[in-house]
Batch of 2 targets.
Target 1
Amino acid sequence: MNNKNYSSDFHGESGYKVEINGNTYEVSFDNGKNIVQINGDPVNLDICLEQEPDLYSVIVDGKSVLIAIEDNGAPGNYHVHTSGYDFETEVITAREAQLREFIHGADSGKKESIIKAPMPGLIVKYILNEGDEVQPGQGVIIMEAMKMENEIKAPTAGSISHFHVKEGDAVEKGQPLFEINN
Amino acid sequence: MNNKNYSSDFHGESGYKVEINGNTYEVSFDNGKNIVQINGDPVNLDICLEQEPDLYSVIVDGKSVLIAIEDNGAPGNYHVHTSGYDFETEVITAREAQLREFIHGADSGKKESIIKAPMPGLIVKYILNEGDEVQPGQGVIIMEAMKMENEIKAPTAGSISHFHVKEGDAVEKGQPLFEINN
Amino acid sequence: MIQKILVANRGEIAIRVIRACHELGITTVAVYSDIDRLAQHVQLADEAYNIGPAPASESYLRGDNIIEVAKKSSADAIHPGYGFLSENPDFAREVENSGLIWIGPPPDAITSMGSKTEARAIMMKAGVPVVPGTPEGVEDDQEAKRLANEIGYPVLIKAAMGGGGKGMRVVSRESDLADSLEGARRESMSAFGSPIIYLEKFIERSRHIEFQVFADNYGNVVHFGERECSIQRRHQKVVEEAPSPVMTPELRSEMGEAAVAAAKACGYRNAGTVEFIVDQDRKYYFLEMNTRLQVEHPVTEMVTGVDLCKLQIRVASGEKLPYTQQDIKISGHAIEVRLYSEDSLNNFLPTTGRVRYLKPPDGFGIREDSGLREGGEISIHYDPMISKLIAWDHDREGAIKRMKRALNEYHITGVRTTIPFGLFVMENESFRKGDFDTSFVEREFDVNMLLEQEKSWEKIAALAAAWKRHEAVSNGNGTASNNSTKAINNEPGKGWKMLGREAGLR
Amino acid sequence: MIQKILVANRGEIAIRVIRACHELGITTVAVYSDIDRLAQHVQLADEAYNIGPAPASESYLRGDNIIEVAKKSSADAIHPGYGFLSENPDFAREVENSGLIWIGPPPDAITSMGSKTEARAIMMKAGVPVVPGTPEGVEDDQEAKRLANEIGYPVLIKAAMGGGGKGMRVVSRESDLADSLEGARRESMSAFGSPIIYLEKFIERSRHIEFQVFADNYGNVVHFGERECSIQRRHQKVVEEAPSPVMTPELRSEMGEAAVAAAKACGYRNAGTVEFIVDQDRKYYFLEMNTRLQVEHPVTEMVTGVDLCKLQIRVASGEKLPYTQQDIKISGHAIEVRLYSEDSLNNFLPTTGRVRYLKPPDGFGIREDSGLREGGEISIHYDPMISKLIAWDHDREGAIKRMKRALNEYHITGVRTTIPFGLFVMENESFRKGDFDTSFVEREFDVNMLLEQEKSWEKIAALAAAWKRHEAVSNGNGTASNNSTKAINNEPGKGWKMLGREAGLR
């Protein structure tokens, strides 16, 4: 589902690209009807504010779900919660998508990912060292939080390019811990 | 507890008169301490916003209660809910109290009370007529709401001076029904 | 087996049915009127469809629309809950004719029991004792006067097609008869679409005791014991319990057998309730049969452990009753307090509004069947019963104490409810002793007791109001009244140390 | 009789105790740390007093401050809940020396059972079977190596003063021993203030089954049957049930008698739990005794009908146990799922944050013991267990289905919880068959199953996010991101007819 143009009016005023867990969805709205296109499929969407400020009752093709859509700092970034699961999403307009393609067109290949502290705590120990190769799910750092030791694991394969913290550091939630080069 | 001045600084910046169910309380605050005077008695007051916009966790002399304090339209008018009971309150500052005394000083004696519809519904029937004497609790009008007939009763003694509605009228919540002269 | 059920109702009972379905692995379809788009039952169901404008006559009573939605959504069956179309035999028939399963009794049984006069005739024939009264509807006032004298005052005027206390009047003397007949007919017409009323002997100081019966498609009929529903105001139940404090094992099996006989006499299937009145000598009389799940069914569930709503679905899908009479045991005691959006301090006048804060109780032995949500609107369009609180314990005394705890814990603002009244009942000496009858509210309830309670909170309410004004004044908003919240976040004055801390945390 | 109780705890267990007190007509005093000013237990208690800053060591562990508050508020007794000071014999002694009633076991029994090594010695003497292991703490690594070889791998390293899985390590081979000893000592030191560890034979594929015992001041001791607590992750219980799916009436009375003997051996009073491990041949071994009310006590309450917390208070105030062993009957089946503020999809990492929306389930057979409130903060300072969901039904299958329904109904945002994991357990084939042991999570749980579930909601999440951006763009706020709510109230575009209606209603 990556980057194919399903909807004829995706490039129009009401076309959006949604990035979510590495997948891209194209959504377009036709003002005047409840019908929305998602990846080319029409669905009937009915959204009502259920509770201030951002909990919605959503009925999609008759199916009823409760969805929280929280602004997540940057424009077009939303934290979405539904049915027990949490999603980080980025929504860009068709125009923004074109602009990005123009700017980043040549950019490809290697990326760095920064792994952040999932909760406040204390850095107990490095398991691996800078330069070590990691597999997804492999433990990199031991952190103590809520009286328990927790392994912070690599989300992707690659090599550890940099530690932002050292043993004994107290860290806040969201603070960068280390980087993986892949 | 009517209109006696308990607190030495009632006439100061932080003195208030609270009217509630026909009773008057005098309350004064001393900025800088948690101690508040109510009718001359000092109490320790600790109020925290529990839930937006106006639900508070209140600890008064150690006693813990949950209180909703809702703005009620006019300045200084609050609807207070606690422990299953609802109160309409009017809070005036010491200065406002002096002003009122000056204006209304000569005013006394007869009053009119307007009885309003407690819920939306249909006026089925008058039980009494204009000019009739009523006792508190006596039925004056039959209203139908939620498929049930309900008697609207006189809250005070007096005579019925005017009906604002006639049989067969559909009324909204809060619409004046009749007046009692006492 | 049923795969998908459309729930043709709203509020707490729609949610009750949705929960039963989900426990059976059945997909649920909710229907809603325009103003119920955000109601809890819509959110808990798997699917939801609009069926029309707010007035029930244009939505929840529109059987045709509901059947259409059932077909569109490929539902196999319809559960009607209580109220609305639940006791409408034409709708039940239409559902069956559309090839859907009707989760309820046969349409003919609904018809027979729906006519209170016909029901009385059937029961008399089956040997079940009935209250003395007119065998059929009374149209003429003179005829009514004659019959009332024959029966002897006090008499009770009842709507022939009625239920739920609507269209009911007690008349103590002939001079009040004409006015009461007029009122009862008007109310009956408005509630049931029929002005037909009839007369019964009004049995004074009687108790209302009803039996839960259940019949499958194979002729098996059992009862699940009784519920005592004597605490009523305006002839509507407000507090129910199981078992009844006056019941003995002997009387239970005698009345239970009568209830089973009643169900058999009208060819009953599925869940039903046979209501009796019991006089001071413990003589019992058939009152009426309700051909649906009752509001108060949870107390029976709590003392028998049986999920009656799931049993309805299983029986409707052709299963045999999994219990014989001997399997059904009563264990402990359960009390239900109905919460109405009514003002306990003002003659139980219905109140409407938006639920602002909602913090219901929980914990061991407490169950709430509720249709409430924070921000939800209580409108004039539907029944003011908004929630049911149920407490179970080993014995009656424990259940009363637990209910009292739960009512005290319950925090709801925005609409007035009958919580203060519920607390009054739990604290009342006659209630605690089990010594009461249907005249309990008239005899025991005095609003001044609640006003006294209210008075005990006045000072703290005054303090809170004064503080709110003081906050506004201190923040330069002495006359503007809508930004006190802001005031709290903006440096609430040095003295308010905890507020300062809270603000720091935000 | 006790008139006023200070509850020396926070969260769901403080609320549990407050509810028990209120049902007994006892006034409650809450204590709170600075960041708990708005916690639920403060709001439900009759009185509340601050006892210090957020870290437990400066507030909930400050026995001196707590006793001072008890005196200031004229409390008669202190209930410690679980955790914090509940198993601190010095505190218990101090409470009693201050003339207050300690609602718990005698300080000496706490001391004996608090030392896991001493407890083992007492039990061996009383003839209760114990797991093979070192009779006392092991300080030296070489000594540990020798003992481990003697016991035979795999061995379990445990904190001598420990509990709750903290400081625990399974070691399968000698080469891992040194690292594990180091980690266990560090964790034990941090959690219990003592680095002393000991070794036990690790019994593979064993089940964790515990018995609830109760002793009064007059030598009467009974048990309330067992709880199965084998579903653990990181040696912490996450799902518990009663009865155990492998229990037989014979084994129950045998193990129950051993549990009663254990309680008698240490001179026990009040509520306690004797934990056993049961191997694949149903041989059982004493593991440890917990000298407090357990987190998982509700499942026992649900199947026996007995309010254990109220019984604690009654026994502490000098009442005799109102039950003999024969009075205690098990009825139906109950399951508890603990909700932790942990990320089920990310190795159960603790998460912190503010609860934004909270809509818990309810209905027949569902109970929630929760310390949560909307807007409440989950901090790093306290245990990540935030709530307990309990389901009861006639039988185990029914209880599982009911729990599944309730977990699906549960809506909580702002912090991640173990709800997805709970659903995984309820749907797991081995769990449903009752065929599992303490290695369940390692053997059966694969995060990919949850990731697949997550994936099934991705499209609808994408749709919702796109709609939110579209609303912002349509209202001229394409880049500003914080007024989409306003967008909804301001004429949301002709197409959104329901939104229009909702706006009209506001």
Target 2
Amino acid sequence: MFGTVLIANRGEIAVRVLRACRELGIRTVAVHSTEDRDSAVVRMADRSVQIGPAPARQSYLNAAAIIEAARQTGAEAVHPGYGFLSENPDFAEVCEASGLTFIGPPAEVIATLGDKTAARAAMSAAGLPLLPGSIEPLVDVEGAARLAGEIGYPVIIKAAAGGGGRGMSIVEDPSEFSRAYQQTRGTAQTLFGDGRVYVERYLASARHVEIQILCDGYGNAIHLGERDCSVQRRHQKLVEETPAPGLPAELTARMGEVAVRGALATGYLGAGTFEFIVDTENNFYFMEVNCRIQVEHPVTEAVTGVDLITEQIRIAAGERLTLTQDDVRPRGVAIECRVNVEDPTRNFAPTPGVLEQFVPPGGPFLRVDTHGYAGYRVPAAYDSLLAKVIAWAPDRAQAIARMRRALGEFTIEGPGIRTTAQFLDRVLRDPLFAEAKHDTSLVARILEADAQAT
Amino acid sequence: MFGTVLIANRGEIAVRVLRACRELGIRTVAVHSTEDRDSAVVRMADRSVQIGPAPARQSYLNAAAIIEAARQTGAEAVHPGYGFLSENPDFAEVCEASGLTFIGPPAEVIATLGDKTAARAAMSAAGLPLLPGSIEPLVDVEGAARLAGEIGYPVIIKAAAGGGGRGMSIVEDPSEFSRAYQQTRGTAQTLFGDGRVYVERYLASARHVEIQILCDGYGNAIHLGERDCSVQRRHQKLVEETPAPGLPAELTARMGEVAVRGALATGYLGAGTFEFIVDTENNFYFMEVNCRIQVEHPVTEAVTGVDLITEQIRIAAGERLTLTQDDVRPRGVAIECRVNVEDPTRNFAPTPGVLEQFVPPGGPFLRVDTHGYAGYRVPAAYDSLLAKVIAWAPDRAQAIARMRRALGEFTIEGPGIRTTAQFLDRVLRDPLFAEAKHDTSLVARILEADAQAT
Amino acid sequence: MSSYRVPRALQNGFDEHPDHEVIELRHNGLDEVLAAVRQTAVELLAAAPQSPSTLTVRAGTVAVEMTWETAAAATTVPGAVLAPPVAATIDAGGGNILAASTVGVFYRSASPGAAPFVKEGDHVVPGQQVAIIEAMKLMLPVEADRPGEVVEILVADGESVEFGQPLFRLAAVEA
Amino acid sequence: MSSYRVPRALQNGFDEHPDHEVIELRHNGLDEVLAAVRQTAVELLAAAPQSPSTLTVRAGTVAVEMTWETAAAATTVPGAVLAPPVAATIDAGGGNILAASTVGVFYRSASPGAAPFVKEGDHVVPGQQVAIIEAMKLMLPVEADRPGEVVEILVADGESVEFGQPLFRLAAVEA
């Protein structure tokens, strides 16, 4: 096992990784920008190194500074958390080149799965179901239009190098196709320096369901069930839960099997997530693989009892998976709510500032992961995620009741500070959500409804 | 289900009960002394009523004021928590007489089980194993001495009305017996106005293991496994865990069965605890029944997933147990540490005062139940229990590592404030505890060892 | 009624802390110590609300075990009973307030329709009954604890009051 | 070496926030908006550390989606590369301090045994090299950003430094 691990991240996930290291008896190094000098992880870590100014490019995205900090502190491994450099194959490569273990998949696996067309090709070869669409990038507009016709409208045109809801167009009608095609290519070229695009069937009503997997370096791979992340605002997840409500167990079991197959086919290592969309007829289609731990990993931990960060670290240290697929016995229901420092009444504008009061909820079957504390100044430079509240219960109704109790208890106050806690409660009490009849359009519906109501 | 419940307690358990009520959609009434005017439960409750001055006799033990507060607020039921009036049969009786549901067993059951000799008689009739000793109270010193001889020394003489380590004498040698007998009778008479005593075998090395039970009003009773509470300082529990480390599963299963039998035999209702001691040969003996929820109930909740307070309330509301014995499938290991506001270096003297900083630990598989908050003034008038930290893990070693991580994170600061957190860590890292070779003498051994070391 | 008998839990005493467990205890002049503690407890109770806990703690003997229980301990003094506090008024903020000594319902007159015990402008003398608080069907007289003029009646007839709630504002008068 | 190629994650861009999911997005002049945001990001980055996030957020259009990413967004400006920050010194507290512009190892001379670039008492001019910081085997010159007299050298030769760590104290001199 490693003696010292460098945590190349900030916020709640940095604290989460630190806790896992501490429980494993591993010394921790926190790297931070000038902006995060007083952050929770810096206070908790055994050592800390200031690696740059506020802008992420010069600090949390500054591979050179992070590698140098690892050298200075004698760290043997780097945990990238999520975001920042966590899915950067070059960073993974530099780590290995510098004699550091990158806690994640090998660089080439990240590279392949990070390229949408390459990932689609690999998964289709592994027999995973894909939305009808192109495997290879399209070459000319005529071929593209022909394919779109075969697929059937509406279709979506996506940049091969894209992601995060950028560089894509939904086309409802054939007459719009060629214009949208050219436009998307242009966008992709300017945005990503890579004009390759592909086209696939567009699903208006769908649910976002993902499978958590773990793979060791000895060909052992398991899945830890699914997460439903359909409650999103502009592709930002707000609420995640497991199991996926209303989906047949056989369906999610099958999704788990194919995810494991896909992982083994690509030589995956560590913790990863296979994203699928599920249509109204319960057909599921592979979307992409996330080569990192995810924000919502705690709901999986809550029902399985498996500490995913600890597993990541053990696998990276060369240990074998001690869990078999049979050992994974999910129990009950877990829901996560993301409490962001944003003002829902002002289009979710971030409200950075000082937290004069900060009292997270507590009590039975409740978990809070946060880097917040009374007196903490939430910087404007980074993500608005302040805390994750995770509630467990034997069934979904009780889990929702527990989460609503917890959100009500959460005290966060400071000049100009607003949070999404109340809005999350609004979502939880929405009939569509309560009856699990919602899809990815839920939040938009709620916002429209409330807007008209006022 | 009740519309409004009055919480006749204070501190962390009052907050715990409030959370359960809120999740059940029940309105809450907090009653409090002048001293607790700004307490957490008062801030959280839907309504609060000040029932008296600081001394418990005039507030939390003031049945008349509590009943009147219930009448004023339209409460339909009273949750007594632990301590105070929770095991007072007269209070249970007054509640019923006033048309309030007492959330606990019927008055007559509390009365029977509250009387040590009556409880011993009832349990021996139900076939539970008792330590060799007298069932009926002793009448004369000669008979007592004869019985002591038959039992074999050392013996312990206990007041029938006693409890909590008061009104008892351990006798090592027959020559001491009659003096100790007279002395104990005198103590019992002055202390409890009841001079009845009985004698039983005294075990020098023993473990304290208790069984959690639940009984509904329809003859259904289940047990939820055991708790080992052997880490005690002068009969005060410091650390509790489940399962009991090193005890064979068949043994604890048998203890569970006899506890259920004893509960059914006495017409028990609600949540209760059967206390046993287990000797070095794994023989177990019934000690007493606690007719209340206990401080350490969260460890049972952590491994079973059952919310014991919610079950108490449902049962009191006349609902049937939805759980069968087969549904109770404990998973992993849970440990609770009690963080008291005491100074271990000054013989655990309480250190009341203002908490200028109060940041409980968080993160995966961790629970904190507390009434503390930054700015809270810990009153001198009541118990020194400030927070309960509960850690869960798949195995005991990881649970201990997690607990030590959590205790290290816990920030509690204020003028004159000291806590037991560091001492608890000292206990957790003791080899005897780590190897589960400890008994109820562990804390005394540690304190002696450390005293000699300095 | 039953609540005025000595409740068994109070006879057992000391059970304010829930988790005493009886497994081993050396016999070391237990009753002398207990007697001392009981004596202290009684004296301290006679004195102001809090201090007992901290004071007995400083003893640093077996008595430490008992300090947390002081409040309850006091109730085990032979003869103690669980009765509503006597209705002697207590002083809550500003020496000119008569406050409720118990939770209950406030009545200004002995019976419906009867004349109120006092009205604004009246002068009262120590021990004079000025109202009734009904708690658990017991009528508890509220008495003035000092001379004064009733300048304001702060609670309406028939209203519920909690412990320490201001009932009357008095103005000092020449004796 | 490899870390100086444009990392793919940065080309994908905007992945600082981990949880964008692509399920539905109406096509509404996307690239114009993006162009505007990119432009803003570039300008803001040129300016001081924080503000970009808050500023672009106030737009209240699709652009809101992108504000959290500003820091990363800037790195996607075509031609951006992941190189150690240039070694122009920054000012950390008290206008008379030359501070480290990167994490690395501090060297006072060009090579072991060679004469130090500067010693206490020397006068330096803007742009004059005063030390080297080695980061990832790159030798990055540390240059004075203003004229002054070296009154104190705060780090020993060969010591590790973090970003913003004071290296030299200068005293102002007559120009």
